[in-house]
Design brief:
heterodimer, A: mainly beta, three-stranded antiparallel beta sheet, 1 helix, 9 strands, 37% strand, B: alpha/beta, 12 helices, 12 strands, globular
């Protein structure tokens, strides 16, 4: 089964990708390999932490935006947190937005910032778009969804949070 | 030594089919030059910018290629404000005596579609739907309303005032008042903000002629002095546009930093300001920026807006020309429109929307992606 060459950087990953890709007929990849590993048994969001000042960044950075330090380490972000703020996107964004939807099939989607304890607040899609169920402070947990499908059928997966 | 604004010019905002953004900038520039009684050939320098309508220095093709240093500025929604800051520094440093600041733009319909790479972000953030500025303002506002107990009626009142003021401004795009109920019931765009609570990308041009304070009266009997012009960018830990992650410590945002710097530079405080133009890309932005610029405490807005404190006849008139909501937002021109309006108000030349009280000090504030802000304090 062919793989998407753009996201394969090392032979190890290639092996892993082929193994995972062989499960069933559906091929999928992360929207950006820097964000999380996909497919993977229990993916987490990949961030960086500054060895000098301790500040986190997501996506991971090679230097620190807080102090400018250049020694950073890779860390995983907590999978659970709380909703810090939210809105509902009620119009189809223009490109570079990519989705399975068109003007006529567009369904509003939730967007928010979630607070992940001890690390960061991060911007995220929410797998909930009913304002009655979106509440600041509510517990949320990491989830994944298909953002769009490439012409060869590969599903492109993005992270999101859902109400826990 | 301060810089003085001795000439102002504007091309009406909105939609002008068949006239390029650059041509609208040229119209504004010619009007500003005429207002100051000077020629383009007298300008020793120019700073200018546009986001979607080409490099500002292409104005040389319209006005004359005179060989002067013409520096293009591109700083998001703070493009105009940044151009003015740079021009004032050229004047106050003694590097030049007389110059032009100009901004113009012409955007497509619909929300801006910024490219992630412009802000150092990965393509994924655009593909996922995060490069939408309206989302940011809605999310900032949602949290602000939660933290400070703001009622949704206040969002309607800000927009209602903007369209009422726009109706009095011949250069505005939206010149029809819109009632409270219509604003409230218009289509929800990004909760809690409805269609009429948002400004739209638009077209327009504004230019200013600036000179040394001690020469200002050569050009006009009513110079307006730039007592402060400060521009700031975002700090780590501040909640700003296109931030994919923010640390948990709350740092002051770019607006608060620019505002503080400007008050310090001018040697005065918010209580000394008589009229202000502050960024109102949506009604919640104006509401939040009222406090971030020091004009009230966080949470006081409900009461102030219910009492009409920011209307033209209120205690502190804000966005007397209708702001972004009634004028639309041509990025390059928008921040300079704010300055244009305050100059008109301080001159006493704002026509039907003139504040009917003595005005000595005005204030402008612009804010944009990815966390840039420019503030001026303008005085008679």
């Amino acid at each position: 089964m062919p793989c998407d060459a753009r996201i394969l950087s090392t032979p190890d990953r290639l092996v892993e990708r082929i193994l995972w890709s062989s499960v069933g007929d559906v091929r999928s990849r992360a929207i950006d390999d820097a964000l999380f590993d996909w497919p993977a048994p229990d993916p987490a969001l990949k961030a960086s932490r500054c060895r000098h000042c301790g500040a986190h960044a997501f996506p991971a950075m090679e230097s620190c935006r807080n102090c400018g330090g250049t020694e950073v380490e890779a860390v995983e972000l907590p999978r659970r947190g709380t909703l810090w703020t939210w809105t509902v996107q009620r119009f189809l964004p223009k490109p570079p937005y990519r989705s399975l939807q068109t003007e006529t099939t567009f369904e509003p989607f939730g967007v928010g910032h979630v607070e992940l304890p001890g690390t960061l607040r991060i911007e995220t899609r929410l797998l909930e778009q009913d304002p009655a169920r979106l509440r600041i402070g509510a517990p949320v947990e990491l989830a994944f969804y298909t953002q769009y499908v490439e012409t060869d059928g590969t599903e492109v997966v993005n992270y999101a949070f859902r109400m826990a | 030594m301060r810089a003085a604004i001795v000439g102002i010019g504007i091309h009406p905002f909105g939609r002008t089919p068949g006239v390029s953004g650059l041509q609208q900038g040229a119209v504004a520039a010619r009007r500003a030059l005429a207002d100051a009684g000077v020629r383009w050939q007298d300008m020793q320098f120019a700073y200018g910018g546009s986001y979607s309508a080409g490099n500002a220095d292409a104005l040389g093709n319209e006005l004359g290629l005179t060989g002067i240093p013409f520096i293009n500025v591109l700083n998001g929604c703070a493009t105009g404000g940044s151009a003015l800051v740079a021009a004032c520094q050229a004047i106050t440093s003694g590097a030049a005596d007389l110059g032009l600041v100009v901004g113009f733009d012409k955007h497509d319909r619909g929300a801006f579609n910024a490219q992630p790479a412009e802000d150092g972000l990965g393509d994924w953030s655009g593909e996922a739907g995060f490069m939408v500025t309206t989302q940011f303002f809605a999310m900032k506002l949602r949290r602000y309303m939660h933290d400070h107990g703001i009622h949704a009626d206040s969002l309607v009142r800000v927009a209602e005032k903007a369209y009422a003021n726009g109706a009095l401004n011949p250069n505005a795009w939206r010149r029809t008042p819109i009632g409270f109920d219509e604003i409230q019931r218009s289509t929800m765009v990004n909760d809690p903000l409805t269609k009429y609570m948002f400004c739209s990308p638009a077209e327009g041009g504004v230019a200013l002629v600036v000179c040394r304070e001690d020469r200002a009266k050569r050009y006009t009997p009513t110079p307006i002095y730039v007592s402060a012009a400060a521009m700031r960018t975002r700090r780590a830990g501040a909640f700003e546009v296109y931030g994919t992650s923010v640390s948990l410590d709350d740092a002051p945002n770019a607006t608060a930093l620019a505002s503080r710097a400007a008050y310090e530079m001018a040697g005065l405080g918010p209580a000394d300001v008589h009229v202000a133009s502050i960024q109102d890309t949506e009604s919640g932005a104006e509401l939040m920026h009222m406090a971030e610029n020091g004009f009230c405490e966080h949470g006081e807005q409900d009461d102030l807006l219910a009492r009409g404190a920011t209307r033209i006849d209120g205690r502190l008139p804000i966005n007397t020309d209708g702001g972004c909501l009634a004028n639309g937002e041509p990025i390059g021109a928008s921040g300079l429109r704010q300055v244009h309006e305050i100059v008109l108000q301080l001159r006493g030349a704002a026509g039907a929307r003139q504040v009917q009280r003595p005005l000595m000090t005005g204030y402008t504030h612009v804010y944009g992606a990815p966390g840039v802000s420019a503030v001026t304090v303008l005085q008679k």
